[in-house]
Specification:
The chain is an all-alpha fold and 154 residues long. The protein is built from three helices and no strands. It has one domain. It is found in: Membrane.
Length: 154
Amino acid sequence: YPTWKRTLTRRAREAQMKRFCKAQAIQRRLEEIEVTFRELEQQGITLEKLLRDEDGSPTDQKTQWLNQLLFLVQKKNSLMSEESDLMIAVQELKLEEQQWQLDQKLRCYMNKEESLKTPEDRAAEQKILVQLLEVVNKRNVLIHIQEEKRLSEL
């Protein structure tokens, strides 16, 4: 029994660290996207000024600037899509952590012998079960949203 308990505790810690590292990676990527957005915005402003101010420029030059502007818009849309995916992943991580915490609380109540449980214990156990079901349903909704998004991109 003690070995089994230590193994579960170790696995829980590893899962928690994995979620933490994933959250950090997502946060870093979101910050990178924000910086890239600013850079693209500045490039777009420069190109717009060039397109508006240069009436005497050759048509080829204007076409090139317009193509660059369109490329920036496509890149920005791509980054916005990635940012949306990352925000969904953040929500999923939060729900995963919440589910883990509720699962731990529920295990404490379930490990208690039935004859020793008070009515308050039973009520708390039911409350945790309801919360756990809500979290699972929220995670299911997120997965459904991701699947719909993936299908719409195809």
